[in-house]
From TrEMBL:
Location of the Photolyase/cryptochrome alpha/beta domain: 13-69
Pfam family, one: DNA_photolyase
Organism listed in the record: Timema tahoe
BP-aspect Gene Ontology terms: photoreactive repair
Protein name in the entry: Photolyase/cryptochrome alpha/beta domain-containing protein
GO molecular function terms listed in the Swiss-Prot or TrEMBL record: deoxyribodipyrimidine photo-lyase activity
Domain of life per record: Eukaryota
Amino acid sequence: MLSKDKVVPDRATGIVYWMSRDQRVQDNWALLYAQGLALKAKLPLHVCFCLVPKFLDATIRHYDFLLRG
């Protein structure tokens, strides 16, 4: 979490889940936590994924899997 706060501020307009290594919906506890925050605060949940050029020494095969699944 980017904030140590346990509650979502009133001025918040959404919850962002920054996806990087764990690109899955099932058994993704961080994503479930973000979803819970969004539901509790009645805010939209936005999932952001940024493909970086040097991702943990990934090969072309890894990048293909990241993009195609």
